[in-house]
Structures are given as structure tokens and as C-alpha cells.
From TrEMBL:
Catalysed reactions, semicolon-separated: Fe(2+)(in) = Fe(2+)(out)
Function: Mitochondrial iron transporter that mediates iron uptake. Probably required for heme synthesis of hemoproteins and Fe-S cluster assembly in non-erythroid cells.
Recorded topology in the membrane: Multi-pass membrane protein
Region feature (Disordered): 41-70, 103-141
Membership in a protein family: Belongs to the mitochondrial carrier (TC 2.A.29) family.
PANTHER family (alphabetical): MITOFERRIN-1-RELATED, MITOFERRIN-2
Segments crossing the lipid bilayer: none
Name this polypeptide is given: Solute carrier family 25 member 28
Major localization class: mitochondrion
A GO molecular-function descriptor: ferrous iron transmembrane transporter activity
């Protein structure tokens, strides 16, 4: 690939061929002489005879030792180094020219007035690699915006609740204190098969639309608040490191926002999931609750929900971050570690907080058969009242009704939530970084 003399003075480079761009297909007649001139400007007139790119040697220090570099050989080496990349050759050449121009001082040895001094091949190879290297995943969240966390969290929450909704329906029924004889189940699979066979194939997903509507904004607030507080508190408690106390505290505060947005949807969802539910549509259930019990019914279980979810989320986040430190110490994007950590964290937190979930279900559904068995009139209100009612109906064992279904629900649910959240956070932030680098 020999340079040719330009009629206006200076040099132009002959067209590049496909030998130096493997895997890119055949590229014929691509000349970047105009691009080179736009970057460098017009050079001095070519001497007679075969034109040559400045072959005067410049001294460059690398690791304390002087090396001599040849510009023409240097340029060819840079082009070969970038051959495997999909970048535009003009960009590579422009970067080489700009770097060399910035490093050449007034006293640099150069034969052509506008030509840059050469760099050592080892230095340039490292520089090209560092520029082409993709940003590390653990550094990406530093540039993430609140919008990124909210969008990723909303997608994760909707997918989590929708994919696991049939199991959630079984969990609600298995936590019933006085189930109908036709709604007694030994395990999750038997329950799903029995519901589909006797009540129809769409019955396990009735009410899923209201859950998706509530899960989107609830998880958007949840993850955005968690990420912000986790970083802020970690900088205070353990600067430059990860604090389990900060993770737990951030999860607790994030739960306040999550449950405030999600609680009305939970009330409607669980009433539609119960056996022999009189509601066929979400709007029918909303109107009936509002008309018969008032607006307060949508937040009757809010305190119990917080009492359950605050310890649940504290255990959940602390376990997740603890497992990430061991499974993914460099905090790279690793889907397997996100799924395993999320699944284990969800299982531990779900098993520990099952008694609180049983009380929450009782407050949300106001189960009529349980109230009739105790000759109780009116509605059950408050966590203390719910705890007494559960114990009076079924004893200590009643606090762990549906624990199997709850754990089975939470393991894939939290695995889906974390893996989807981390994936979308990675993709969105990476694209934001690419847009910033182009500008």
C-alpha cells in the first residue's frame, strides 16, 4: 500500500483492500486521503522520486528505554491493530493523528511542518485498546440516572408479577384459614391442575391486569429509591465500600413507597383470587369495595403489609448483596449470579415472613368463613387483631399456611426481578454512555 503524490502537493494514500480487514467482507476502493487532509491539512510539496511518508526517526521513551519508531511503519501497524474491529478506518487514523499531534511539542523532530511525531508501538497499542475497551459494568451505575432505575424497575416488576401470577393465586388460596372443601390443596401443582380443571384455564390469571398496573409504578419507585439511598448511606457508613446496614435500611425505606403504590392493587387482586369469588372484573371489585367498605378498605392492610415487607426486604437485600460479594465480587454483569443471588434471597426472606403474610391475606380478603367460625361481626382491622384471629382459628400451625407456595413463588419471582432489572439497567446505561461518548 504505497502513497502517491498529490497534484496539490502532499501525499495521498492508495485504496485499502480486504487483506487488512478480515471478517468484514471485501472492501474495494476506499480512500481516506480526503479525510486525512481534513484532519491534518495540506503538507509540504513532495520531493522528486518515489514519494515517502516522513521516515525521519523520532526518539520515544517507553519504560525508561529509548526506542526509535518509523512513521510509515507506525501507521501501518496501527491500521493492522484495528483491522479486527468494526470501526471506520478514518476514525482510527484521525485518532492516531490527534494523539500524535497533542504529544508532539514545539521541539519535536519532524520533517513535515504539520506532521505529528510518532509514538512507540507498545504505547499506541495500549492506547487503542483502552479507547476501544467497553466500560466496566460495575462503573456503569455511577452514570445511571433516576429515570434508568425507574424504567428498569418497572419492567422487572411487571414481568415478575405477571409470570408468577398463577402461583400467587395458589398461595392466596392455600393461606385461607377456612377453605371450602373443594378448595383444599396438598401442593402447588395439584392446586393449579384442580383450578384449571374445575374453574377454567383462565381462572388462575384473573386479576392479573390490575397487578401489572400497580406493579409498574410501585417497582419503579422501589428500585430508584433503593439505588439512591444505598449509595448515599454506604458513602456515609462505609466510604468506598458496601455496607449491609445501608442495603437493609435502603430496602426498608423503598418498601414504604412500593407498598403505598401497590396496596390497593393487592386488595383487589386477592379478592379476585379467592375460591368462589363473586367478582368477574376488576372494575366490579373496585366499585363493590368502595361502596360497601369505603376508601379505607384499600389501605386496611397497609400497616400489616409494611410490618411484613420491611423485614422481608431488609433480609432480601442484605442476603442478595452478601451473595453478590461472594459470587460476583467484581460486580460485573453476570446473569447467573444475579439469578442465583435473587432466588436464594427471596427464599430466605419468604420463609421467615410467612406468618405476617398470612395475616395480611386475612385483612385483605376478610374471609367470611373464618369470621363466622368465631361468631365475629364486622371487619377485622389491625395487625394485632389479625394475629389473634389466625391463632384462634388454627393455632400456631396456621401462621405457616401456604409457606410452600410462598417460597415456590418467591424463588423464581425474585430471580426474575433481579435478573431483568440488572439487564435493563445495564442496557440502558450502556446506551447512555455510548451517546455521551459520541457527543
Amino acid at each position: 500500500m504505497a502513497p502517491t503524490a498529490s497534484p496539490r502537493g502532499g501525499y495521498e494514500t492508495a485504496s485499502l483492500h480486504d487483506e487488512w480487514r478480515p471478517g468484514m467482507g471485501r472492501v474495494v476502493g476506499v480512500s481516506w486521503a480526503p479525510r486525512l487532509k481534513a484532519l491534518v491539512g495540506t503538507t509540504t510539496a513532495a520531493p522528486s522520486g518515489p514519494p515517502r511518508i516522513n521516515r525521519r526517526r523520532s526518539r520515544v521513551r517507553d519504560g525508561g528505554q529509548e526506542q526509535r519508531g518509523d512513521c510509515s511503519m507506525e501507521l501501518e501497524a496501527v491500521l493492522k491493530e484495528s483491522a479486527a474491529s468494526a470501526g471506520d478506518p478514518s476514525r482510527v487514523l484521525g485518532a492516531w493523528v490527534r494523539r500524535s499531534w497533542s504529544t508532539s511539542g514545539p521541539g519535536a523532530e519532524a520533517e513535515v511542518t504539520t506532521a505529528p511525531a510518532c509514538e512507540a508501538p507498545g504505547n499506541r497499542a495500549r492506547d487503542v485498546d483502552s479507547r476501544n475497551q467497553e466500560p466496566e459494568y460495575e462503573a456503569l451505575p455511577e452514570g445511571s440516572t433516576v429515570t434508568t432505575h425507574m424504567l428498569a424497575g418497572a419492567v422487572a416488576g411487571i414481568m415478575e408479577h405477571c409470570l408468577m401470577y398463577p402461583v400467587d393465586c395458589v398461595k392466596t388460596r392455600m393461606q385461607s384459614l377456612h377453605p371450602d372443601p373443594a378448595a383444599r390443596y396438598r401442593n402447588v401443582m395439584e392446586a393449579l391442575w384442580k383450578i384449571i380443571r374445575t374453574e377454567g384455564v383462565w381462572r388462575p390469571i384473573r386479576g392479573m391486569n390490575v397487578t401489572a398496573t400497580g406493579a409498574g409504578p410501585a417497582h419503579a419507585l422501589y428500585f430508584a429509591c433503593y439505588e439512591k439511598l444505598k449509595k448515599t448511606l454506604s458513602d456515609v457508613i462505609r466510604p468506598g465500600g458496601n455496607s449491609h446496614i445501608a442495603n437493609g435500611a435502603a430496602g426498608c425505606v423503598a418498601t414504604l413507597l412500593h407498598d403505598a403504590a401497590m396496596n390497593p392493587a393487592e386488595v383487589i387482586k386477592q379478592r379476585m383470587q379467592m375460591y368462589n369469588s363473586p367478582y368477574r372484573k376488576v372494575t366490579d371489585c373496585m366499585r363493590a369495595v368502595w361502596r360497601n367498605e369505603g376508601a379505607g378498605a384499600f389501605y386496611r392492610s397497609y400497616t400489616t403489609q409494611l410490618t411484613m415487607n420491611i423485614p422481608f426486604q431488609a433480609i432480601h437485600f442484605m442476603t442478595y448483596e452478601f451473595l453478590q460479594e461472594h459470587l460476583n465480587p467484581h460486580r460485573q454483569y453476570n446473569p447467573t449470579s444475579h439469578m442465583v443471588s435473587g432466588a436464594c434471597a427471596g427464599a430466605v426472606a419468604a420463609a421467615v415472613t410467612t406468618p405476617l403474610d398470612v395475616c395480611k391475606t386475612l385483612l385483605n380478603t376478610q374471609e367470611s368463613m373464618a369470621l363466622n367460625s368465631l361468631n365475629t361481626s364486622g371487619h377485622i382491622t389491625g395487625m394485632a387483631n389479625a394475629f389473634r384471629t389466625v391463632y384462634q382459628v388454627g393455632g400456631v400451625a396456621a401462621y405457616f399456611r401456604g409457606v410452600q407456595a410462598r417460597v415456590i413463588y418467591q424463588v423464581p419471582s425474585t430471580a426474575i426481578s433481579w435478573s431483568v432489572y440488572e439487564f435493563f439497567k445495564y442496557i440502558i446505561t450502556k446506551r447512555q454512555e455510548e451517546r455521551r461518548s459520541r457527543h
